[in-house]
Amino acid sequence: MEAPKTLQEAIVCFSDFENCRRFVVAIRWPDGKVRCPQCGSDKVTYLAAAKLYKCYGDHPKPKFSLKVGTIMEDSPISIDKWLTAMWLIVNCKNGISSCEIARALGLTQKTAWFLDHRIRMALHSGSFEKLSGHVEVDETFIGGKARNMHVEKRQRRITGTGSKDKVPVIGILERGGKVRTAVVPNRRKKALQSKVREHVEAGSALYSDALLSYEGLAGEYAHQVIDHAVSYVDGNVHTNGLENFWSLLKRSISGTYVSVEPYHLFRYLDEQSYRFNNRKMDDFDRFKMAAEQMIGKRLTWNQATGKGLDLQTRLPN
Ligand SMILES: [Zn+2]
Questions:
Q1: Alpha helix locations (H) across 106-187?
Q2: Ligand 1 centroid from CA 20, angstroms
Q3: How far apart are the CA of 303 and the centre of ligand 1, in A?
Q4: pTM over 0.70
Q5: Helix (H), strand (E) counts: the chain
Q6: How far, in Å, from the CA of 37 to the mean position of ligand 1?
Q7: Average pLDDT of every residue of the chain
Q8: DSSP assignments along 74-112, one per residue
């Protein structure tokens, strides 16, 4: 199989199940030996007609599909549609709405929405590696379009604890490198500084605006402040890299998704960060890495919709 380079080539390539199968096997088992998700045995045969594998181990339910053990598990959507949706999400610069995915793949919007959320979950970077060098930190507010929303949704938004319908988000950017983003409960010192310490190596050069919440970081970082009331750039001291990221994010959220509920915001942040952090890759590599990250992850409908969770904090009620 030759690696597709464009969306059209990807659609053609993955419309053939054999190509999907070879692709998924290659990313899950680089040695080419498919292993049973239950017992780990590689004594399995492929049942081509059923598109299933059969394990010879001594346990019930010996048959399994390639979706088991990935974000695709339990999904009735075929692998070719999963892969095409993933291609669209990681390669459309401003994101793609579940309505567009639904239309493109012939799915209902609800199905496409759940599929999107599972793909975004795969895009989440669990990296513990800290940012270093020249690092910018900044916060912004996302949301505030409650006026155009359905009454029930609007109430859910507005009754959430914290900042009404706007959600504070922190961004931390290593210049020339990667960005980390997170929803924070507020813009107070504790919330912001704990994120800085979590993501930035001590001793790095740190740039922020004059928000008082950043005061007290100078002991661990070479912290320099740009007072936006005075100017936006002073030599090296600015947060323009993050300003650019925020404008991309806001264009994608307000242009493509119209409105995002606070509970789901972190997944859109993950999606935008993934595209940004892998901006130097070509489309196939960006897609392939996302596909590799879908292994070993699960997201249930209740988790995706936040049933039983505090909508603002995503923690159990
Ligand atoms: Zn087995």
A1: 109-123, 151-158
A2: 22
A3: 28
A4: yes
A5: 11, 8
A6: 7
A7: 87
A8: T--S-HHHHHHHHHHHHH-TT---HHHHHHHHT--HHHH
Of 50-59, 200-209, 266-275, 290-299, the one with minimum mean pLDDT is 290-299
Whole-number Å distance between alpha carbons of 182 and 126 = 12
57 C-alpha to ligand 1 centroid (Å): 4
Whether the Cβ atoms of residue 135 and residue 200 lie closer than 8 Å to each other: yes
* CA 65 to centroid of ligand 1, rounded, Å: 12
**In 3D, which of 262, 243, 98 has the Cα closest to residue 165?**
262
Task: Give the position of tokens 């590599």.
Answer: 285
For the cut 80, the answer to whether the pLDDT of residue 1 exceeds it is: no
How much is the average pLDDT of 39-45? 96
| Cα(36) to centroid(ligand 1), Å | 5
Cβ–Cβ < 8 Å for 304, 118? yes
pLDDT of 206-229, one tens digit each?
A: 999 999 999 999 999 999 999 988
